[in-house]
Design brief:
This protein is α+β, with helices and mostly antiparallel strands and 204 residues long. The strands form 2 sheets. A 3-stranded antiparallel sheet has the order 1-2-5. Strands 3-4 form a two-stranded antiparallel sheet. The model has no long low-confidence stretch (mean pLDDT 86). The chain is built from 9 helices and 5 strands. The protein has 3 domains: 5-54, Helicase, Ruva Protein, domain 3, CATH 1.10.8.10; 59-112 and 157-195, 2-Layer Sandwich (Tetrahydropterin Synthase, Chain A), CATH 3.30.479.20; 116-155, no CATH class. Helix 2 (19-28) packs across helix 3.
Length: 204
C-alpha cells in the first residue's frame, strides 16, 4: 500500500512522533493506522515525542512582513529551544515565510488546539444542523462533519493552511520538517496581522 503524506500527518497528529518515524511505522504496518501506532509504541517513538513536547521553546524571534503599499503588515513570533537555533538561516527563513503567510491568508488562530472551545463547538453545531435532514447513517454523518471541521481548520488555522509558495505542503509539515532536521522544538507562539482601514472620500 502506498503511504502518502496525509497518512503520515494523521499518524503524527495522533502520536506526536516524528515524520520519519511515522512514515516508517506506516510502511511496516502496510498502511494500517492502529498497527502503526503499536509499532511506534514498541520503538519508543511516542514516548520520545512526548518528552519532546514537554521541552520548553523559550528562545526565538519576531519576524515581520510589510507589503509594498505600506498598508498591510504581519508579525509572527516563532519560538525554539536555543538562541543558537534562533540564529539559524533556515529558522529565520521559515519565520519570514510565516509572516508572509499570515499577511496573505489572514488566519485567525495558530492551530486547532488554540481555537476557543466554544467557537469550535459552535462551528460543529452549524455543521450538525446542516446534516439534520440528511438520511445517511449517523456514523457516515459524523465522518462528513469531521471532514467539514478539518476543512474549516485549513481556512482559519495557520498551521493547517497550505503554504502560499508551495501548496503541496502545509505550514504544519514545514515546521515539523525543520524541527526534525534541527533537532529542536519549534512553535508558532502567536501572530498579528494589521491592515489599514479603507477610507472613503465624499466628492465635493
Amino acid at each position: 500500500m502506498a503511504i502518502d503524506a496525509k497518512m503520515v500527518l494523521e499518524l503524527r497528529n495522533r502520536t506526536a512522533a516524528g515524520m520519519v518515524d511515522c512514515k516508517q511505522a506506516l510502511e511496516e504496518a502496510s498502511g494500517d493506522m492502529e498497527k502503526a501506532i503499536e509499532v511506534l509504541k514498541k520503538k519508543g517513538a511516542i514516548k520520545a515525542a512526548k518528552k519532546s513536547a514537554e521541552r520548553t521553546a523559550s528562545e526565538g524571534i519576531l519576524a515581520t512582513y510589510l507589503h509594498h503599499n505600506k498598508k498591510l503588515a504581519a508579525v509572527v513570533e516563532l519560538s525554539c529551544e536555543t538562541d543558537f537555533v534562533a540564529r539559524n538561516e533556515s529558522f529565520l527563513a521559515l519565520a519570514d515565510d510565516l509572516a508572509l503567510q499570515v499577511a496573505a491568508l489572514d488566519p485567525s488562530y495558530v492551530s486547532p488546539e488554540t481555537i476557543p472551545a466554544e467557537i469550535a463547538e459552535k462551528k460543529k453545531q452549524e455543521f450538525l444542523a446542516e446534516m439534520a435532514e440528511d438520511k445517511k447513517p449517523e456514523d457516515i454523518k459524523l465522518k462528513i462533519i469531521e471532514g467539514k471541521m478539518n476543512k474549516w481548520y485549513t481556512e482559519v488555522c495557520l498551521t493547517k493552511q497550505s503554504f502560499i509558495k508551495d501548496d503541496e505542503k502545509t505550514i504544519e509539515q514545514m515546521i515539523a520538517a525543520l524541527s526534525g532536521t534541527i533537532g529542536e522544538k519549534i512553535v508558532v507562539t502567536r501572530f498579528q496581522r494589521i491592515q489599514m482601514a479603507a477610507h472613503t472620500t465624499n466628492a465635493c
